[in-house]
């Protein structure tokens, strides 16, 4: 009986910490949210929602490495969702952990193979790890899933430029410019 009461009290405290931290985040006080969540996690280490909220509070403070560690802990606790891999990959990328970003985007792609964001971000992360041919393959998959991804077309164009495939580069960059005519990025790349 006593454990059930303690668990109920602990759960309510965790929920209260989530609510208070959410309010702190809305009011632009991620440091306060971090403190509230860290204190709650001391009692509820296996609470995935507290870990996810802490990752968000840390991200708001640009503490990307710490946020990535909390996201990984939340994912270890489970349950997993493809969006968590997308978020974890983005945090890893922001923390300069390109190999970890690649692993997260690959795992997310396995869970949501029809979501074009995974091969798009995977391609970007693979470029940072120097895996240009794998990056090209991922970006081709992204535009196959969604031909409206200007970022993927433009990046394919930049990769083709780097390999002196000028005709292919022009084709890809023209596609990016057609999709995002207001973007200077693709005009500049095409001018090279």
Strand percent estimate: under 5%
| Helix-residue proportion | over 70%
Average of pLDDT: 90
Element pattern in H and E: HHHHHHHHHHH
Structural class comes to mainly alpha
Biggest sheet overview: none
Number of helices: 11
Report the strand count. 0
Query: Distance between the terminal alpha carbons, to the nearest Å?
Result: 73 Å
* Low-confidence residue ranges: none
Tell me the radius of gyration.
21 Å
Q: What is the overall shape?
A: elongated
Structural topology:
Blueprint: H1 2-26, H2 30-43, H3 48-60, H4 64-77, H5 82-94, H6 98-111, H7 117-128, H8 132-145, H9 150-162, H10 166-179, H11 184-191
Helix pairs in contact: 1-2, 1-3, 2-3, 3-4, 4-5, 5-6, 5-7, 6-7, 7-8, 8-9, 9-10, 10-11
What does this protein look like?
This protein starts with a helix and ends with a helix. The longest helix has 25 residues. It has 192 residues and is mostly helical. The protein is elongated, with a radius of gyration of 21 Å. It is built from 11 helices and no strands. Helix content is 80%, strand content 0%.
Question: Main traits of this protein?
Answer:
single chain; mainly alpha; 192 residues; 0% strand
């Amino acid at each position: 009986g006593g454990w059930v009461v303690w668990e109920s009290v602990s759960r309510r405290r965790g929920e209260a910490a989530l609510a208070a931290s959410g309010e702190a985040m809305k009011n632009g006080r991620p440091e306060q949210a971090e403190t509230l969540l860290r204190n709650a996690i001391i009692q509820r280490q296996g609470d995935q929602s507290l870990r996810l909220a802490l990752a968000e509070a840390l991200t708001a403070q640009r503490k990307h490495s710490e946020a990535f560690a909390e996201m990984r802990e939340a994912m270890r606790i489970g349950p997993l969702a493809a969006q968590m891999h997308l978020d974890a990959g983005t945090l890893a990328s922001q923390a300069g952990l390109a190999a970890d970003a690649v692993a997260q985007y690959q795992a997310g792609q396995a869970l949501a193979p029809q979501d074009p964001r995974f091969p798009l971000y995977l391609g970007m992360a693979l470029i940072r790890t120097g895996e240009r041919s794998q990056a090209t393959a991922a970006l081709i998959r992204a535009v196959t899933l969604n031909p409206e991804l200007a970022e993927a077309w433009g990046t394919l164009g930049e990769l083709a430029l780097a390999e002196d495939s000028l005709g292919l580069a022009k084709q890809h960059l023209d596609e990016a410019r057609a999709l995002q005519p207001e973007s200077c990025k693709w005009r500049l790349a095409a001018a090279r």
